[in-house]
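HUMAN: Please help interpret these C-alpha cells:
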Amino acid sequence: MEERQGQYYISSPPESEFNRQVNRKAGITDLKQRAHGSRSWIKIDQDGNSEIVTLDKATIMRHCSLPSRDLRLLDPKFIYPSSILGREMAIVVNLEQIRCIITADEVILMNSLDGTVGRYRSQLCNRLRREKSDDLPFEFRALELALELTCTSLDAQVNELELEIYPVLDELASSISTLLLERVRRFKGHLLALTQRVQKVRDEIEHLMDDDGDMAEMCLTEKRRRSDASLLNDCFQTRSSTGRVISKSAPNSPERSVSGLQMLPRTFSGIANSSKYGSSTGSSDNEERIQPLEMLLEAYFIVIDNTLNTLSSLKEYIDDTEDFLNIKLGNIQNLLIKFEMLLTAATLVAAIFAAVTGVFGMNFETSVFDYPSGFNWVLVITGIACVALYFALLFYFRYKKVLPE
C-alpha cells in the first residue's frame, strides 16, 4: 500500500507539468489567433449595396494602406475616445459605436449588434440609392451620416438625462433625503461621463476645422482624380518625348547662343512668376477643395456645441441646487445653534433654582423657617431671580450678536 502511494506520488508531478505546458501552448495559440483573427465587417459601395464580409487586419491594411495602430482604434476590445483620422487612401472614423473605414468608393463598417450601426447601414444605403446626384463626394456623405447619427445619439442621451434629473432636483430642493441625494450623485457621475464624450467629439471636429492639411487629406475623391490626371499627363509626356526627333549633327551658331543667353533672365523671371502664380492658385484651389468639408464640419460643430451647452446648463443647475441645499442646511444649523444656546441658558437657570431649593430644603436651623410661608417665599423669589437672569442672558447674547436673528 505504501509502495503504491509512493509510486503515485512520484508519477503525478510530470503529468501536471505536462498539462501546464499544454495549457501554456494553447494560450499562446489562442493569443495568436486573436491577434491575426478575422472579424466581421459590413462593406457598402457607392451604389448602396451592402454585404457582410470577413476580413483580417493584414487584408484591410493592404487594401486601405493603413498602419496597424489605426486599426487598433476600431478594435472593440479597446476603449478609445472619439477620433477622425485622414490618411492617404482612407478616413478612419471612431465615433461612439460607429467604427468604420471610409475610402473613395466604399465604406468598411465594423459589424455589431448595436442599433446605431444598423441605422448607419440602412440610412447610408438608402441615401446612396436615392440621392445619386449629390454634390458631395462619397467619403463626405459617409462621414456626414456618421457625424449625424453620433450627434443625434448624444443629444438624445442628454435629453433623456435632462428629463430624469430635473424632477429629482426639484424634489430635492423641497425635501432633503438620503435616497434623493444618492440618485443625484449617480446622475452627476453619468453627466460627467457624458460631458467627456461630447467634449471629445467637439474637440475632434474643432481640430479638423482648424487644420486645413487634415481636411485636405480627407478629400479622397479629389486626390484620386488628381492622381489619375497626373498619371495620364506623365504618360503623355513620356510618349511625346520618345516620339521627338533631335538632330545632333547641327552645330550651334554663335548668334543663337548669344540670344539664348539673353533669353535666360526672361526665362527665369517667367518661371518665378509662374511659380508664384501656381502657389497662389494651389492655395486657392486647396481652399475651394476643402470648403464643402469645412461647411459640413461647421454645421455639426454647432450641433455638438449646443449639446455641450445643454450639459453645461444642467451641471450649473445641479451646482445651484447644491448651493441652495448648503444654504438651507446652514440655516437649519443656525436654528439648531440658537435652540442649543436657549436650552443651555434655561438649563443654567434651572440648575440655579434647583440648587437654591435644595439648600433650603435641608434640615438646618434658619430664621426663614420661623414663618409658616417662609419656604414658599424663598421659592418665589428664587424663581423670579432665575427668570430675570434668563432674560438678562438673552439680552446679552443679542447685544453681543451671539444668537442669530
Q: What stands out?
A: The first strand starts at residue 39 and ends at 45. Confidence is low (pLDDT under 50) at residues 1-16, 25-36, 244-282.
